[in-house]
Every structure is written in C-alpha cells, then in structure tokens.
Design goal:
single chain; about 500 residues; alpha/beta; Glucose Oxidase, domain 1; Aminopeptidase; seven-stranded mixed sheet; 11 helices; about 25% strand; elongated; disordered N terminus; binds zinc ion
Length: about 500
C-alpha cells in the first residue's frame, strides 16, 4: 500500500469518527480519533523487519576460498566496529549523531582506520589533518510539537513529532516559533495551492522512489517559495515507512524540518480533520538550538601497498564519514576497504602498481572535502595516479517504495567510469560475471559520490554506487547490510583492482 493511500485511508477513518462522535464539529475523542504517531522507535534497527532476509551466498571461484580476508563474516566485523562508533556518538547525547567530520566520532573512526591499516601491514600509514574553509551548521537540540487543542476532542494533549529533523541551515533565534498548520500539497503538484500561508507553518509531502535526495530540487524550491509567501516554517513529510530521521535538503529560507511518514500521517490527518470540522488552526511550536562551528578539522587516513612498480599508483578510496549509523553510507564501503587492505598487503597478492588506500573525510560537509584536500596536500604521491577506484554504498539490501518493501538481494548499483574507457568497462563486466556483484547492466560516465575531489588528477575514476531509500536516514542501520553482499563487493573489487593495476595506461586512458 502506498503511503499516499495510507493517508487517504487514515483520513476516511477520521471522517467516520467525527460523523459518529462529533458534536458541532468537535470530536469526542483525542485528536479527532486519529491514532497518535508511533514515535521514533529504535533507530539502530531497520524500519522494516529484515530478520529473515537471506541474500544468496557469494560466488567464490575455485582457488579463491583461501582469500578468507574477503569473507562476508570477516568484513561484517569491521562494519560492526564502524557502526558502533556512531552508536556511541548517540549514546553520548548527540541528537544528530553519526561519524560527522569535525566531530569526535569522525576522529575516532580515523583512529580506528589507522590501527586497521597498520595491523594489515600497509606502509606509510598516516592520518592527515586539514581545516574547514567554512563553518559547519550543527543542530544541538530541537522539538516540533503539535499543541494541545480541546477542539480536536477531549484529551487532545501536546504531541511531539519525534521524527522531525531540521534541514541544514535552519535557525530559530528567539525562542520557539508558533503557528497554525497549513497543508500545501505534494511537491509533485503543478503549482502551490492558492492558500494564505502568511504567518503559518506550511506542510508539504514528498514521495521519493529512492533516497529523499531525488526530491531535493523540487522540495527545496517549493519550500523557498513558501517562505517568500510568508510561511514562518516548512515541514516536509517524507513518504516512505514508519518514522525515520531524514537528513537532507538545505537552506529553505525559513526553519525547515523533515518529518517521518508516520508523524506526517498524523499531522496531515489532523489538519484535514480540523479543516473539515471547521475548527480553528491546529497549532505547532518549533524549538531549535543550533550553532555554526568554524575551523573544524577533517582527516584523511592513508596507507600504501607497494607494487612491483611504484612509478604509477592506483588510488582505492572510501569515505569514512556518515550521518546517523551510516551502515550503508558508507560503513559498507569503508569495511570493504579494510578487507582489501588486508588482502593486498599479503605478499602473495602483491599488486603490479602501488596501491594508495584512502579513508577520506568530509564527504557530507561543505568546505571539508577529503579527496580535494588529499590532492592538494600530497601532489607528488597522487600525481602518480593512473586510476581512482571508489567504494561507496555497495552492499545494502534492496529497499523499494510503492509499496515500501525490502528484498533479500542487494540494491542494484550503477557502475560509472568517468572516461568510459572500453577496457575498464570490459574488466568490470568480467568481474561482475565472476562474482555476481549487483551492477545494473548499463554503465555510464556518472560518478556522483566521493570522486569529485579527484577530478584535478585528470585520470579515470570508477565506482559502483546506489542511493536507495535509506540514504541519509536513521534507517541506514547495520541490519540493512547484506553480509554476502559485502563479500561480493570485496571479491569484485579485489579482482578489479588486481587487474586494473596491471592494465596498460593507454587502455585505462585512451587518447
Ligand atoms: Zn556516500
């Protein structure tokens, strides 16, 4: 069932309640009989039950069983450690937790990677530090609350919308703001409805098929237009499932919050009921305490596996930072990076070209890009690069919307090759067929992700990536990651990097 249909049914039920219980348009039960939202729940567990998800085992060609460092259960232990750093961040009281560059949990992640690289036997292992070129918006605490309203029925007390998460750049300066709710439709509607939003809190819905980012432009443009028309705040209801924090969108012009599906269901149903019953505004109060933090420090942790030649190198990158538990963005990529470090550091797996392993920082923060800083801080080393391989979002279960569901396979990934070199595409196809890595059949030159900062190198950049519904949400939890998927990714990339490290430069980068 679609969330939209859920809303429709919720409203129908609520109408019936008023018809039965209503007296002069006032319900006899709290909040017009609309069921209260379920709260945020356990944000370290999947929003859907994934306990019975068993993706098929990884394909291991004969002779490769001995590469136990590439086994899914081995890699899963790295992932547990990585996600554990995020959980500890939340346990310390961070409401907007994660391995966020410039903050303690990111520093701890780099310290952990440093130890792992050393334990694997990498050379010249080091954590490099750089300073942010702009201040970072930091949400300390907040509360979005539907205010008690006797006209919504006896016992209609304050309801905290627990999944509310402020969008980047939002600020409330003088105490909580308060206003009536006005529902302004879906971001896909042709135009904003002709309703007065002046002094009100506008609520719009978005219905992403993949991550909320896919609705970024529409949602933000519309929020800005609502701000221009006088709305004092905007709430974006993200129609997925349950209640999750969604960390996306920025700079709405007024304080802006994303709301989980269940909180949205409650709010929309109550607003609709109130309008039909002719009850005056449903009021919301919004409190938000933020800071701008200047001069934060970011890190890249690096290490080398010397090849049989070191005049040319291949860079293998994974970003170390992430919002919330960030198991799939990018705990999985970082965990597979650890497995590859262990793999290539074994004498029998010595690559032809030298490999530079990079756990990068600042992927999610403006002015703190890890790869960009790596390139400027290590011109001689990275100047030898002939190829950059990026591990990002590579082993999450396949979540889908309409209806919101999950399947016991990995989320299909797009494979991008910046220069579309036929030799790289042929190698990726060979590796994909060998290990059953979940790549979509058509490769492209799109490399959205952490590869942007490597552009100045002028060499081919490749990655497999997806950005499914859990992207940048508190639903990006450990249990949503496929253990066989981690192994598929590790075996795919071990083969891909081995072969790429001995492919002629002219084939990697045809003129
Ligand atoms: Zn990412």
């Amino acid at each position: 069932m679609t969330a939209r249909r859920v809303f429709a049914i919720a409203m129908t039920v609520a109408v019936a309640c008023v018809a039965v219980h209503g007296q002069q348009g006032v319900s006899a039960t709290a909040w017009f009989g609309v069921p209260l939202p379920a709260g945020l729940g356990d944000s370290h567990r999947s929003i859907l039950d994934v306990s019975r998800m068993q993706p098929p085992a990884a394909t291991v060609p004969a002779g490769e069983e001995r590469n136990t460092e590439l086994r899914g259960d081995t890699i899963h232990k790295y992932l547990e450690a990585i996600v554990g750093i995020s959980k500890a961040d939340r346990a310390r009281g961070e409401k907007a937790w994660g391995r966020i560059t410039g903050f303690r949990a990111a520093d701890e992640t780099h310290a952990w990677v440093l130890e792992q690289f050393k334990a694997a036997g990498l050379r010249n292992v080091e954590t490099e530090t750089y300073t942010a070129t702009q201040a970072t918006w930091y949400p300390k605490s907040w509360e979005v609350k539907v205010l008690a309203n006797g006209k919504a029925g006896a016992g209609s007390r304050d309801v905290v919308l627990e999944s509310a998460f402020p969008t980047s750049g939002s600020r409330v300066t003088n105490g909580p703001i308060r206003g009536g709710v006005v529902f302004v439709g879906a971001t896909t509607d042709a135009a904003l409805p002709a309703v007065d939003v002046t002094g009100k809190i506008a609520v719009q819905t978005l219905h992403p098929q993949s991550g909320a980012f896919s609705e970024r432009t529409r949602t933000t443009d519309r929020a800005r237009e609502l701000a221009k028309r006088g709305a004092i705040a905007v709430l974006n209801v993200v129609e997925q499932a349950g209640n999750m924090y969604v960390r996306d969108f920025s700079n709405c012009g007024v304080p802006c919050f994303n709301l989980g599906t269940d909180d949205g269901r409650f709010l929309v149903a109550v607003a609709e009921r109130a309008a039909r019953a002719g009850v005056a505004d449903v009021q919301i109060s919004i409190g938000l305490d933020t800071e701008m933090r200047p001069d934060l420090k970011g890190h890249n942790t690096i290490g080398l596996v010397p090849g049989t030649r070191d005049d040319e190198i291949v860079i293998v990158n994974a970003h170390a930072d992430g919002w919330f538990d960030a198991a799939g963005d990018n705990g999985d990529g970082l965990a597979v990076l650890m497995a590859l470090a262990h793999h290539f550091a074994k004498p029998e797996n010595k690559p032809e070209r030298t490999l530079l392993f990079v756990a990068s920082g600042g992927h999610h923060n403006g002015g703190m890009n890890g790869p960009g800083n790596l390139v400027t801080m290590n011109p001689q080393l990275v100047g030898k690069a002939v190829l950059v391989v990026n591990l990002e979002h590579i082993a999450q279960l396949h979540f889908m919307n309409d209806p919101f569901r999950v399947e016991a396979v990995e989320q299909p990934m797009g494979f991008g090759i910046s220069n579309e070199a036929p030799a790289i595409a042929a190698l990726a196809t060979r590796a994909q067929q060998r290990y059953g890595f979940a790549l979509r059949p058509n490769f492209s030159n799109s490399i959205a992700g952490d590869l942007g900062g490597y552009a100045p190198l002028g060499v081919p950049r490749v990655q497999a990536i997806h950005s499914g519904p859990m992207y940048h949400t508190s639903g990006d939890t450990l249990d949503t990651i496929s253990t066989p998927g981690l192994e598929r990714a590790a075996r795919f990339y071990a083969y891909f990097v081995t072969e790429a490290a001995k492919t002629d430069r002219a084939a990697l980068q045809p003129k």
